């Protein structure tokens, strides 16, 4: 089920927490009120879905969008986890009998999980360490002397009483070494010292990457191992001697060097000026130059910093650096995915989908306007002139019989050649009114072999399923792509390197948002598509489809309640996103014309009153923009219906069930450019944006290798974020700047100057 629920009741959030969450998600253009945060948490706790809250509870939330609502949920969950951890830490320290009033106060005042863990570190149960073994040997009093830094005494003399061969303290040097181990651990676990080193590293630290020498594999020759390493290393030439500020390194470079490290080509570390840090640590621990104990404390600090403290901080900061890079990469992936899912649909028109193939032939699938598979033929284009002629005759006969509006050709191997063949064949046959367009087939093979595809087409070959999917993608990209794992759609970068749980969660949210933004025809939608509607999960979606197949189409939205397991609460969440599309194209053909709109059934009575006040029937009002514009929304404002909802209702009445996606426009690639070798510097081409990253956009210009438009070449003005200029699926004009055949790289520019 797509319901998102807060992990704790809103009552657990104090006014100060609500205010902190509100401040954190506020933007300069929109201040979020703590009351809005409280309302969101209450609605989530009641089981409301994020799309429902964003669309139909604007008065309560102050018109917060889905991104803001999810941010509230995430921050509240983090607060709940912090409080759970705080309670566990206090209980643990108390059980040890070490919870002083001062420490309790510090633990209660800790504002972050990191600050809390720093305070808890000295009390945390850990494996035996050099320091714990030294304590077992009775060296704590000697360590205390080093820490106190008295102006009297002599370390070598004062350490004599601690020499005990039976306790494995052989001599004075061993006693002092053990005492220094205790001091080193104490220093490395002090919260203020850790904060000092952490903050300094964050501010002044550097991410360093260097090329690693190849390891000689035991089972292979040195030459073979080196050769393999060199091939792998070539991908990371940019980073073989690399250093960049920890505070400023962008996420894509973080993930690049970490991938190089994972592939054992690079060694990656953090570096900070220890010579500047150590004196500050010495001052924190009260080291006094000239005292008898100064050298011992200095040695302990130096050892503790190198052996314990900095490695610990480095591990921690590397984890945080990776986590931030993951978030950025996932955000980029999510934006790209949304662009692809919301690509312009051709609509409910008959089409032919073609999955190109050389040896096995091009599989053609005819799909009618409802997405139903009709028939298939296979075209063999690589079997000489006779085979090509037979293919021409087959294709022409297929088009004349089924009258498709368009033919979609998969853009994989042999895609451009197949597309050119189809165009020539149709032109020669005088069938110039049929659109021929490439279709991104990323993930089509994944769908073809999936359980969903087997359920839809149990007796149809994998390759035919792929052709059907290509045709349906042309009709409605969103409806077909929801059947595919988002990672297989091919719009991410480093998607296999980031945290997979977070990635799946974020991409699921994107799919859910896009589906509910567009709306779903409950009488034609597949179970995978219905499962993404707010409040409906996979099990209930299958029941809806089964009910539809057994009892016929739903005559009204309310009729959906007859589906077993679909109660009032689920209906409330889902109804506004479900549509009944009129078969005649006129909403008046429906039992209730509002069922084709985004007006929620809870507001049908209000719309009926609006129509009555205008002196018309509801059917006459729905779809009549001029009549809708005459509605005085102030007249209908009440305690539970405010201006945001009223404006949404008026907009829906003017254009009921409007599709937010753009009108379909077929991309037009040059017929004389099919491979990289056909590209010439300075050539102007039409292309389709396939992927947007932090450093630019990748564009398909029809040569089986996407070109990169660097961020500096995206526009004639300065661009700080490529997503501000382009999104996946956009059609743009580009100019070829460079063609690197050896590395299969194409540099493009979208600048006019």
Overview of the molecule:
The protein has 753 residues and is α/β, with parallel strands linked by helices. It folds into 5 domains: 10-123, Arc Repressor Mutant, subunit A, CATH 1.10.10.650; 130-328, Tex N-terminal region-like, CATH 1.10.3500.10; 351-475, YqgF/RNase H-like domain (Nucleotidyltransferase, domain 5); 530-654, DNA polymerase, domain 1, CATH 1.10.150; 676-749, OB fold (Dihydrolipoamide Acetyltransferase, E2P), CATH 2.40.50.140. It has a 5-stranded mixed sheet. Helix 1 (15-25) crosses helix 2 (34-45).
Question: Quick summary of this structure?
Answer:
The chain is of the alpha/beta class.
Keywords:
about 45% helix, about 750 residues, 5-stranded mixed β-sheet, Nucleotidyltransferase, domain 5, 5 domains, alpha/beta, 30 helices, disordered N terminus, Arc Repressor Mutant, subunit A, Tex N-terminal region-like, 15 strands
